Amino acid sequence: MSEFKIRFWGVRGSLPCPGVATRRYGGNTPCIEVRCGDRLLILDAGTGLRELGDALVKEGGGIDADLYITHCHYDHVIGIPFFAPFYNPNNRFRLWAGNLLPDFRLKSVMQNMMSEPLFPIGIDTFKADIEYRDFRAGETIRPGEGIEVRTVPLNHPGGATGYRIDYGGRSFSYITDDEWQRDGHDARLIAIAKDTDLLIYDTAYTEDEIEAKKGWGHSTWRDGVRFADAAGARTLCLFHHAPEHDDEAMDALLAEARSARPGTIAAIEGDVIRL
Fold it and tell me: Which residue from 50, 48, 100 is spatially nearest to 71, judged by alpha carbons?
């Protein structure tokens, strides 16, 4: 059976928070490496993308990969200018975004982010072959043989896209920057995580914190449990940890989540999960 694995390079939301107090869980913003056999997929391009890029360069050889962006808020794209493989002409990438049409295009958004007065160099500095592909959340993408990427729109300001990747009879769903709708389940959201082996979900806040942050587009670990149970997901993974939640706070959150749903895990920078 071909290997299907993921590695966390960034697990925080909103703002990177490196330091002693976040050493165990990690301080980089979202980035996940996915290996489907010999195919490389990347989910999100937060500050964790830089370290992934350095690791890929050390592996040597040309890189051909798909990078799927949930949305273009800074914490999910700020790693792009610092991704070393983009500066090598031997590499090829396809960047995908499903929440920008019809008002925006991914390439122009990246051009604006990497331009004065915000940034000193532009995307024309990249040497790799990069394609910028816009789609509409809800479409299905097939980046390689036997790989299916299903997408779903999420409840987040400006929109965001959730992803489910199926390969070799196994699956995981990556649903971050989503505000759980407690007055009724979104059938499309439940469907995208139905019976998935692993559900990585935005659990940024506690129940006490979420009251002051309604409309911000994030959820709690209790929402994650509700979602995982409704979808019949095998394992729930807490993700998009708030920067103010240090390692001790995360330990407490994880313990509470596990008491409600045994087997729940939390995303930790550097951890590898084999499906």
Answer: 100
Residue for token digits 């920008």?
100
Tokens of 115: 């331009």
Domain that holds residue 139: 4-274
258 beta partners? none
Check whether 174 has a pLDDT greater than 60: yes
CATH number at residue 110: 3.60.15.10
Helix pair 221-231, 247-260: axis angle to 10 deg: 40
Structure tokens given for 137: 């959340």
**Which residues, at least 6 apart from 265, have a Cβ–Cβ distance to it below 8 Å?**
235, 236, 237, 238, 254
Residues 241-254: tens digit of each pLDDT = 999 999 999 999 99
| Cut 0.85: pTM above it | yes
